[in-house]
Amino acid sequence: MGDNQLFGAGFGLFTLGVAASVLRKGSAVALQLLRRRLMTTLEIPVSDHSYHWVLEWIAHRPDMSCHFSVKTAFQKLHSGKISTGFAFVPSPGSHYMWLGKLSCSKLSECGKLHIPYETVTLTTIGRKKEVFEDLLLQARTFALQRQKNMTLIFKPMGAEWRQFGEPQRSRPFQSVMLAAGQSEKLWNDVTQFLHSQQWYIDRGIPHRRGYLLHGPPGCGKTSFITALAGELECSICILNIGDWTLSDDRLLHFMVSAPPQSIILLEDVDAAFLDRSSEVQDPRRQGMNMVSLSGILNALDGVVSSEGRIVFMTTNYIDRLDKALLRPGRVDVKELVTYADAEQMCRAFRHFYPTENTEHAEVFSSNLSKFTEKVSMAQIQAFFMLHRTDPKYASENVNEIIKASFIF
Ligand SMILES: Nc1ncnc2c1ncn2[C@@H]1O[C@H](COP(=O)(O)OP(=O)(O)OP(=O)(O)O)[C@@H](O)[C@H]1O
Ligand SMILES: [Mg+2]
């Protein structure tokens, strides 16, 4: 009897355990089924353009739960002054908000080893995909409104292009003064290219164009590309050819996967043609990759290419570049951006001192042109900044620019 009681109690407990486990499993399956039938989920990976738009949009919603991460922008200016700015982004985890009729969204992020891989998962009650379309459209409009007159900079990180720093205020196109007609010529070429996709398709030519700006330092190559990107409302994707983590395959991958409506910028492209054999011997570089000449040539003119791709390259030493790089198809437009001529000097003066009598601009330009020493626009800009309140002094003491150029 005693035995039977023990057995009965044991059997009872066993049955309860099995029942509980079945119940638990069953409820999990039921929940899963319920989720599948009653909820719709959208996953946005970090590599997608909407990712940043959605995060920004969520962070600015009034009904957003108060759980943020801080993103601090830190900048040390040349003067030594430090400026900081704080931006709040939704923290990793779940956030709930009301979007129209009884629907809610959930956000989650996860990290994977060293490469930060993040996704935003949106979940809504109901089976209406349109909620997501609406949400993405709202997020896009909101982000583009905030990015108006801003230029986004992208750099490769891991296997993806990632936005680098905060959006930069676009540089006004007119603030970069190249030789007469040069900016207009480049502008016309780029805009014609962007508007002639069908023309390229009809003739079976890949829709891509390469530009090379070459010339001495400080004459406006980078500034022009930045201003052009701002005017075209494009972002800039910077690829550093000298980067030891960039292999031929990665270069090709990044060329093909650049975000839409962007300019790919290869600065100091001559770095690829340096003799790096001594560096290769360096034990610290063992096992690391580097871009080869054929890697660059293939990336610029290979079989794979994204539609409407614009590549800008810059160099101070065009004579160091291989002829194969300079041929049409890789470099379609070559422009020399060089020292300031008399007309540029005049324009620069008027740009810096807009209320000043134009005579002073003429005096400045004719005084400066008398010197045999060539000056870059960067030197002129530095000189004007030094005498920003005294244009008369600036126009009459141009020799100080020449003297200063010997210091560097
Ligand atoms: N043509 C120009 N018009 C207006 N500003 C200019 C011009 N050229 C240079 N500057 C000024 O000089 C500075 C340096 O210019 P930038 O970086 O564009 O030169 P760069 O040609 O790219 O030089 P590097 O070959 O050394 O990279 C910038 O602050 C820019 O404002
Ligand atoms: Mg530059």
TrEMBL record:
Pfam families: AAA, AAA_lid_BCS1, BCS1_N. GO terms for molecular function: ATP binding; ATP hydrolysis activity. GO terms for biological process: mitochondrial respiratory chain complex III assembly. Keywords: ATP-binding, Hydrolase, Membrane, Mitochondrion, Mitochondrion inner membrane, Nucleotide-binding, Transmembrane, Transmembrane helix. The keyword Transmembrane applies. Residues 14-176 form the BCS1 N-terminal domain. The keyword Transmembrane applies. It catalyses: ATP + H2O = ADP + phosphate + H(+). InterPro entries: AAA+_ATPase, AAA_lid_BCS1, ATPase_AAA_core, ATPase_AAA_CS, BCS1_N, Mitochondrial_chaperone_BCS1, P-loop_NTPase. It is found in: Mitochondrion inner membrane. GO terms for cellular component: mitochondrial inner membrane. SUPFAM superfamilies: P-loop containing nucleoside triphosphate hydrolases. Residues 207-341 form the AAA+ ATPase domain. Its main location: mitochondrion. CDD domains: RecA-like_BCS1 (cd19510). It is a single-pass membrane protein. PANTHER family: BCS1 AAA-TYPE ATPASE. Belongs to the AAA ATPase family. BCS1 subfamily. This is Mitochondrial chaperone BCS1. It comes from Ciona savignyi. The lineage of its organism: Eukaryota, Metazoa, Chordata, Tunicata, Ascidiacea.
